[in-house]
Amino acid sequence: MPHAHLPAPIALHQQHQLSTLVENRTVYTLEAFELNVFETHQTAHQVPLSMGNLVLTTMLRGRKVMHLAGQPAFDYLPGESVIVGENQTMVIDFPEADEAHPTQCLAVAIPTDTIRQTVDLLNEKHPRAEEHLPWHLDTTDHAHFQNTPELTGTLERLVQLSRDTGRVKDVLANFTIQEMLVRLMQTQARQLLFHNYRQHLTTHRFAHVVQYIKQHLTEQLTVEKLSELACMSKATFFRVFKRELGLTPVEYIIQERLAEAKRLLQNPLTTVADVCFRAGFNNTAYFQKLFKQYEGVTPGLYKKQCAGC
């Protein structure tokens, strides 16, 4: 039961306010992007939707089943996002939607020029650690993912700007959409390395770092050792790792240890203290504080919830 990173809720419409019960659309148009809020209040299947520009969609409520060309169908749940390529058609099922359980989804349509300018700027001013892997936005292999806190925060600001009546909102919106694109590319870079690092051991220096962390999770891990594996100075490694992946090496180690703790907590025979040390933490109070901060519940409550699943 992962802790979902959801943008702040958006008020639902009453059914009499809707022009349609299936994918009712509310549009906010700015110079830098178009924000759409879609609501569905009744069961429906095989509903096509195409928006022209590349679109970032983020689920807020309910469950959809998404069908994208060349991919198997998948459940689409709150706290997740999907990038839909330019002129690509989504086909959507709403197997559970009704008045009491509507679906709600954000869709941010981004002009091609905005994407190209942001990617070009990054590649020119802030190239990635591996020159053969330039910045780009993937609309195929890594297009469905769990939101990060940073991406969620950026989406919340986009929603706020869409409803703002201030005179400088379009200037702020341009900066914010660029930040969102960077967050998206960082999120995809995490997927590439954290989940498929073995495939990139010969082509990406950070893949060696990820492998070492996973293999030595319960040991003391230092930035000095990790930077040595990446063949970088300590300062350069720390800066480039965070720039490419959106989190520091220390934050990544914490997330890996918490993921291991969650796995161990599902065993009814383990105690919270035992899990703390087996996951690589050396202080139970610190472990409990971090777990609550990242997962939204204490380790003890998480364990009880797992027992009830």
TrEMBL record:
<dbReference type="InterPro" id="IPR050204">
    <property type="entry name" value="AraC_XylS_family_regulators"/>
</dbReference>
<dbReference type="GO" id="GO:0043565">
    <property type="term" value="F:sequence-specific DNA binding"/>
</dbReference>
<dbReference type="InterPro" id="IPR018060">
    <property type="entry name" value="HTH_AraC"/>
</dbReference>
<keyword id="KW-0804">Transcription</keyword>
<dbReference type="InterPro" id="IPR020449">
    <property type="entry name" value="Tscrpt_reg_AraC-type_HTH"/>
</dbReference>
<dbReference type="InterPro" id="IPR018062">
    <property type="entry name" value="HTH_AraC-typ_CS"/>
</dbReference>
<dbReference type="Pfam" id="PF12833">
    <property type="entry name" value="HTH_18"/>
</dbReference>
<dbReference type="Pfam" id="PF06719">
    <property type="entry name" value="AraC_N"/>
</dbReference>
<keyword id="KW-0238">DNA-binding</keyword>
<keyword id="KW-0805">Transcription regulation</keyword>
<protein>
    <submittedName>
        <fullName>Transcriptional regulator, AraC family</fullName>
    </submittedName>
</protein>
<feature type="domain" description="HTH araC/xylS-type">
    <location>
        <begin position="207"/>
        <end position="305"/>
    </location>
</feature>
<dbReference type="InterPro" id="IPR009594">
    <property type="entry name" value="Tscrpt_reg_HTH_AraC_N"/>
</dbReference>
<dbReference type="InterPro" id="IPR009057">
    <property type="entry name" value="Homeodomain-like_sf"/>
</dbReference>
<dbReference type="GO" id="GO:0003700">
    <property type="term" value="F:DNA-binding transcription factor activity"/>
</dbReference>
